[in-house]
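Quick one: co-fold with flavin-adenine dinucleotide.
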Amino acid sequence: MRILIAGAGIGGLSTALCCLALGHQVTILEQSPRLSEIGAGIQLPPNAMRVFDKLGLAGKLQQYSAKPAALTARMGISGRRLFRIPLEQGNAPRWHAPYLHIHRADYIQVLFNAVTQHTDAKLELATCVSSYKNLANGVSVSCTNARKYDADVLVAADGIHSNIRKQMHGRSNPHFSGNIAWRAVAPVEMLGANVPENNACVWMGKGRHAVTYRLRCGELANFVGVVERNTRQTESWSTQGERSEALEDFRGWHSCVTSILENAPQLHRWGLFDRAPLTGWTNQRVALLGDAAH
Ligand SMILES: Cc1cc2nc3c(=O)[nH]c(=O)nc-3n(C[C@H](O)[C@H](O)[C@H](O)COP(=O)(O)OP(=O)(O)OC[C@H]3O[C@@H](n4cnc5c(N)ncnc54)[C@H](O)[C@@H]3O)c2cc1C
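Sure, here it is.
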């Protein structure tokens, strides 16, 4: 089959690799002129790693990842440990695959390299999909650069602001969830004695919580902190926040948390939004996938 995929994010590239492994021809249309470096840490759970193992990418992904020793929960201010579930000895063998943490940029790069090495794959950058048309025996896609593509099926992996979802379901009306998320990544060498342990750790507090873990073979410390807010925010991955505001949100918290906020080169502040569930994810030869299906 000829498969068109809109979007070269994690969903689009992973789908492309699965389709290629099944012997299909794949064309990916990506609006950006180059790979995005934006993002921070992402957890790669064992169910995802089992898929990447089948695709022959598990080793490559592990090269760029950190493998947490345990899942832990601690109190945000005192640092008191609430529980610790070891991963190396206990759970990983049960899952038959590792549980990893990876930087989004490294993740995309590994998938991108694997796709572009494949002879049955085409990747068209700077190509923004604007609409689709179901035909009797296929689907036709139009792009903002006036190019058109035909295929047997279209997978819409064009993210949270998906043009294809808008055509299928109309404009969505996201509403602010009442929470913002701070995101930060700091080099471990800058944190001195305040390096968080190599665990996936949830830090608990009143009206807020944080998660810390390591990235890039332990060289980076990743932080996400969710804080309740009643003021309206914008929905964006790239909005930066003021360091003073982040430190105020986590004032008095354990130094392993605050040292990341003090030392990260940039702090991102995202409003978290909810959308009503869609009534369906397909329209004849078109299917929504990943964030586009929200
Ligand atoms: C910039 C960014 C940073 C993120 N950082 C994190 C993170 O640090 N941690 C985390 O857990 N999650 C993060 N996420 C979310 C996470 O990556 C997604 O939830 C998940 O990977 C879903 O992937 P996706 O492929 O469905 O969508 P996305 O990852 O959003 O990918 C969609 C792709 O489609 C492209 N695209 C959009 N519109 C069009 C169009 N009309 N035509 C062609 N291409 C189009 C986009 O440029 C993008 O490459 C981030 C997402 C983004 C976009």
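If it helps, The mean pLDDT is 93.
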